[in-house]
Amino acid sequence: MVPMRFSYLGPRGTFTQMALMQVSSDESEHVPAVDVPAALRMVRRGETDFAVVPIENSVEGGVNATIDSLSNGSALRIVGEMLVPITFVLAAPQGTRLEDVKRISTHPHGWAQCQNWIADNLGDVIHVPATSTAAAAAAMAGGATNFDAALCNPLSAEQYGLTVLAEGVADNPDAVTRFITVGPENVPLPERTPSDKTTLQVQLPSDESGALLTMLEQFATRGVNLSRIESRPVGDSLGRYQFSIDCEGHVADERVQAVLIGLHRTCPLVRFFGSYPSAHQIPVKLRPGTADQDFSSARSWVAGLLETKD
Amino acid sequence: MVPMRFSYLGPRGTFTQMALMQVSSDESEHVPAVDVPAALRMVRRGETDFAVVPIENSVEGGVNATIDSLSNGSALRIVGEMLVPITFVLAAPQGTRLEDVKRISTHPHGWAQCQNWIADNLGDVIHVPATSTAAAAAAMAGGATNFDAALCNPLSAEQYGLTVLAEGVADNPDAVTRFITVGPENVPLPERTPSDKTTLQVQLPSDESGALLTMLEQFATRGVNLSRIESRPVGDSLGRYQFSIDCEGHVADERVQAVLIGLHRTCPLVRFFGSYPSAHQIPVKLRPGTADQDFSSARSWVAGLLETKD
Amino acid sequence: MVPMRFSYLGPRGTFTQMALMQVSSDESEHVPAVDVPAALRMVRRGETDFAVVPIENSVEGGVNATIDSLSNGSALRIVGEMLVPITFVLAAPQGTRLEDVKRISTHPHGWAQCQNWIADNLGDVIHVPATSTAAAAAAMAGGATNFDAALCNPLSAEQYGLTVLAEGVADNPDAVTRFITVGPENVPLPERTPSDKTTLQVQLPSDESGALLTMLEQFATRGVNLSRIESRPVGDSLGRYQFSIDCEGHVADERVQAVLIGLHRTCPLVRFFGSYPSAHQIPVKLRPGTADQDFSSARSWVAGLLETKD
Amino acid sequence: MVPMRFSYLGPRGTFTQMALMQVSSDESEHVPAVDVPAALRMVRRGETDFAVVPIENSVEGGVNATIDSLSNGSALRIVGEMLVPITFVLAAPQGTRLEDVKRISTHPHGWAQCQNWIADNLGDVIHVPATSTAAAAAAMAGGATNFDAALCNPLSAEQYGLTVLAEGVADNPDAVTRFITVGPENVPLPERTPSDKTTLQVQLPSDESGALLTMLEQFATRGVNLSRIESRPVGDSLGRYQFSIDCEGHVADERVQAVLIGLHRTCPLVRFFGSYPSAHQIPVKLRPGTADQDFSSARSWVAGLLETKD
């Protein structure tokens, strides 16, 4: 079997690579990309088999770069999702003592998520911005002297050979980021499981008050719950929206198909980005009348009405 | 071709027979029935081919006897509807003068619908109740002396050989009754037209607040309008309802099928009583995304998502 | 204290009088009326203090004569409701034996509700229609010879001095009719209790698809359940409806007031027929956010937003 | 009169300062802030009277930094909004020729919004990232030599004394950003106009499927349209959302108050961020039954029902 090639939001040692390690075998090739569009572009061009990118953070919300890069360009398919807890380590070259740390380099998001811990444990410290937490670790390993420690994840501390001064650094210890594995459009659909998710992009009919309500009723009428909804601009003028949506269930489920048919009929644009097992693996709780057999027996009944009875 | 046999709500000369005359050929046999259940029973037993019965009156509302007789018993199919304007004539034996009329026999509904006309034109007149307006005409023709004139429809005045003293008697000249032609379950469905109606019986899930709202959303989500809704008791306890519904469209329409599937999935009982051309012949105005081709292209799209792309 | 005068749907001994006896003291005057409109007319004219009339039957559904007589004419107020189980006795002059009964007189509704019992217990028996079950008893007491027994309620058997041949005659032993006590518009509102009902008449905006759905959402948004809904024609043309509605709660409840305000704003006609304790006395189960204090604290918050903060 | 102090998203010359110039008088003091939270913090601390910050971009969508900074921290009030078209100039030191430009510095968003123009007009050019478009202009004015031109707005070209090589640089000439003026909580509410907007933050009841639908129905039932909706994480776990919403109308409008009351009753958190005239000045189109007089006459009617009529 040929080893898989994965592009991911780099550089080496990012939380994204931690997510990637959950799904890739040892023989896989990991190709860091400078940003999310670049990681997806490699899949679109066939340079990698899959891309791993973040889609949602429990603190920062939806990752617009991912949502928009999926929307713009040729079709892609999400085939899986992974959760990574967002906790940091404070890492430095061997010999550095915690009390010597006066300047910390990290990505502004990382800094924001650890401000209280730093104030409580280190007092008045200067933030030296980096383009990613892993980049801070890389710079430190490369001999940077304009800061004393990097606030990064455990993986990059290890990969860049740094010493961990403090573990479990985080203001919100439950912070988590959701990552997705994205393949080309012709990748086979993952099999149905009891706890699937389906990701969609839906544009609303313009100039219609209540259009969002009407769109959501397409889901409600078939008993399909949403687990994520993000509004994104269509881009041509203010006040025109499309929505990035995760709903419960698999496109092989009748109720999800009925939702998709309803959306396709009534919305100017619907795109399907895949059905895949949810990371939390909690089985979807079906409402009465929404199982596959409810749909098929209803269809049989209607078909019978159309037949001549002789 | 064998002449058709029609049972109808009798006696001879009722508004129902006027409706029947709109659809029957000269060779048809007209069989009066004592009440609506009897007229439908003849169809169920194969004694007649079709029954004509009233279903809705613009003044009195739904005709419960018809709605309930359709619901209870073996399945029947509505194959057409007819509108009959409800205006009366004042009819009497030859020689009677309008100014001599002091006692009028008619059905209480007929009396109720002409009270103002009578007060304005005849002053203080006594009502002698009859079991139908045609029965009053029949009694008059049979020599009844306890009243001076019958308030009946033009047909029964003619059939019973009475002289018309006044025409167009009605407080509300726009009053109209809708009648239906009902056949056995195995009668062929009428062909689709641009202005069809479908008649249903739908029982709500019990003990669920908002169940009526949820049921109506099954129609709204597919852009199907209701033209009649009547609540009827399920019969086992107060507060348990079923609904008799006319909606726009034909069961051969995809949007109507989608409604039926949704109702079948979520309601404990759905019965289909037929799709047939509406009497007013005003084409149904489709909302965007609800035409057959919208459904079929949406289904094709979803089917494509399920295929392997290799 | 002056004794109350009650008009009711007569004649003496009807189920309606049984309902009346649940609420009237011994000194009350009971005035039978020939029909429901007449009973209500007496209240409108001040000839009686209250009327007792049926409004809903678990088998036959809403009583249109009552619903329409409330709607047409000057305003009235419902101040209470009573439930009466609908079971019959077979009554005859002393000496009649059950096996001699070959012809039974009763109202057609009574006949319909006992058909199976009669077939099972008496076999082939002829129905002699009467205008009410009590009228059958009265005729029997008056010496009528065209039938052998009256199918009536226990009260009229007693009042007309008949012997009971069989008790508990009913196909559906749980059949029940709901009656209401109706006073003039200026009667004081009954006090709030934990299990009130409010009765309304609501006309829909014409020519608006989804108007019923929109109207029901006025209730749903405030968490107010419906316990009865009947469609009635507006009367000017087919397809124009108004609804007779019972909802849970009292007009003194904030959530019911909010519903009424919403209906008044958006419907061409809303009439209030009273708030009164429900006969079943089951406390209304409030949904979160719909108690009076939820409304008043929300209003205070909004009022605070409008104040200048200096 | 004391001159007003405005903090804004700096540095000098940003699009934000262009928005600020639309509302500030010549005597106003403009205080640049390093980021949006800092600009708002100055208002919270009383260091400035108002802050001007971006809230929504027609291409990039909602500005999360602004939405989240409004939500977190003490209450603030939006008192106005301004639109600024997003078009750029290519600016350089005097003497630079367009054909010499091989390296351009600008913010990544600016670069993204002009990529096609640059490819068409300049061919293969290198992007040198800057922290804002104004920062690129400032660096160029400060003598930076690692790029040849700054892609910035006209204001910063002027402020930093640069020569404009090309005007109207933009891939989408209709791109526009919406900015808001934010004051402290005790600032007086702007007066009502025919085209107001109200900004809210609403948290959904957790673990309730259909919660978003239910929340939107609070708006629909009162005929209040949304002009913007953004989902933001509550922050404690994935799948828990709050929404940042702009709706039509002013908190002094009865229909908006009714929405606020409904939201306050049913949602765990509702925050009001102000009512202010919309920048586009198109009057809100009222739906029937939603004007102030509709609410007040409905309330009077309900109040009358509660009065004793004697």
UniProtKB/TrEMBL annotation, chains A, B, C, D:
The UniProt entry, under InterPro entries, shows: ACT-like_dom_sf (IPR045865), ACT_dom (IPR002912), Chor_mutase/pphenate_deHydtase (IPR008242), Preph_deHydtase (IPR001086), Preph_deHydtase_CS (IPR018528)
Q: Which Pfam families match?
A: PDT
What pathway is this protein said to act in by its record? Amino-acid biosynthesis; L-phenylalanine biosynthesis; phenylpyruvate from prephenate: step 1/1
Source superkingdom:
Bacteria
EC nos: 4.2.1.51
Which reaction(s) does the protein catalyse, per the Swiss-Prot or TrEMBL entry?
Answer: prephenate + H(+) = 3-phenylpyruvate + CO2 + H2O
List each copy of the ACT domain by range: 200-277
Give GO MF terms, alphabetically. Answer: prephenate dehydratase activity
Residues of the signal peptide = none
What keywords would UniProt list here? Amino-acid biosynthesis, Aromatic amino acid biosynthesis, Lyase, Phenylalanine biosynthesis
Q: Which residues form the Prephenate dehydratase domain?
A: 5-184
Task: Name the enzyme group at the top EC level.
Answer: lyase
NCBIfam families given in the database record: PRK11898.1
Protein name in UniProt? Prephenate dehydratase
